[in-house]
Amino acid sequence: MNKLLQINSSLFTSEGQSTQLADLFIADYSKKNPETKVQTLDLSANPLPHLDGERFTAFITPVGERSESQKVIVAESDKLIADLREASAIVFALPMYNFGIPSVLKAYIDHIARAGETFKYTENGPVGLLEDKPVYIFAARGGSYLGTDNDTQTGYMKAFLAFIGLTNVQFVYAENLNLGEDSKTESLKNAREKISQLLNK
Ligand SMILES: Cc1cc2nc3c(=O)[nH]c(=O)nc-3n(C[C@H](O)[C@H](O)[C@H](O)COP(=O)(O)O)c2cc1C
Q1: pLDDT tens-digit profile of 103-141?
Q2: 3-state DSSP call for residue 67?
Q3: Rounded CA gap, 46 and 9, in Å?
Q4: Residue whose CA lies nearest to ligand 1 atom number 23
Q5: Burial state string for 75-109 with b = 16 or more CB within 10 A and e = fewer than 16
Q6: Tens-digit pLDDT profile for residues 76-102
Q7: Mean pLDDT, range 16-24, rounded to an integer
Q8: Whether residue 72 has pLDDT greater than 70
Q9: What is the pTM of this model?
Q10: What span, in angstroms and rounded, lies between the C-alpha atoms of 144 and 54?
Q11: Are strands 125-128 and 119-122 parallel, antiparallel or unpaired?
């Protein structure tokens, strides 16, 4: 059974442009892989807390020494990592907010970056511990950043995902969504075309 893990972070939840593009891809993917089970994490509807000292200390406390409250904190992170491990492919719906990734997505990343679980340090530098699998990212932006220093998302997502072992990452962008109806329509049309080609490569 194929399991697809969809990670949404639009503050407009299912109405977000990034969510809708991810949904379109998933419909296509499910048609081509009829046995697919989709698990959706809506990080905006169900946000994780910020990583603070208490939570990070729980992560790095050895298993046998954790307090009851630390066990609860670690169990939440363990479940998120188990979901990643079980997935055959991962889909991120990625809005741009205030020149970066949504803070709810950063909180998620802070909960899955766990030494000994998703990465480890070796003499030759960090090594990702997740089995490599396809990652699809659907990025929605009001303006246009691709290929410029202001695209703070592409490099960051690639770097972080590679850090935990995920190197097979493909992006589809819908830019200029807030520059008037014509450019929005054109941009979404182009993105939908790219999505329809993604699985035919
Ligand atoms: C709080 C907020 C901040 C935003 N900041 C940016 C920005 O820095 N750059 C940009 O190009 N668009 C920005 N936008 C526009 C969004 O990128 C655009 O609405 C996009 O569709 C968001 O994805 P979503 O519809 O999936 O939420 C912002 C939108 C909101 C609501």
Answers
A1: 999 999 999 999 999 999 999 999 999 999 999 999 999
A2: coil
A3: 10
A4: 95
A5: eebbebbebbeebebbbbbbbbbeeebbbbbbbbb
A6: 999 999 999 999 999 999 999 999 999
A7: 98
A8: yes
A9: 0.97
A10: 39
A11: antiparallel
Main-chain phi, psi angles of 39, to 5 degrees:
-110, 130
Tell whether the model's pLDDT for residue 172 goes beyond 80: yes
Whether 10 is in the pocket of ligand 1, judged by its Cβ within 6 Å, is: yes
CATH number of 3-198: 3.30.70.20, 3.40.390.30, 3.40.50.360, 3.90.180.10?
3.40.50.360
What are the Cα distances from residue 32, in Å, to 2, 25, 151, 158?
11, 11, 32, 26
- Give residue 201's pLDDT: 67
Q: Tell me the H-state helices in the chain.
A: 17-32, 53-60, 68-86, 103-112, 154-163, 181-198
In this predicted structure, the answer to whether residue 29 has a pLDDT above a threshold of 90 is: yes
38 Cα: distance to centroid of ligand 1 (angstroms): 26
Distance 52 CA to ligand 1 centre (A): 26
pLDDT grade, residue 200 (50/70/90)? Answer: confident
Cβ pair 137, 161 in contact under 8 A = no
CA 51, 52, 57, 58 torsion-angle sign:
negative
Sign of CA dihedral 85, 99, 27, 135: negative
Domain ranges of the chain: 3-198
Distance 144 CA to ligand 1 centre (A): 11
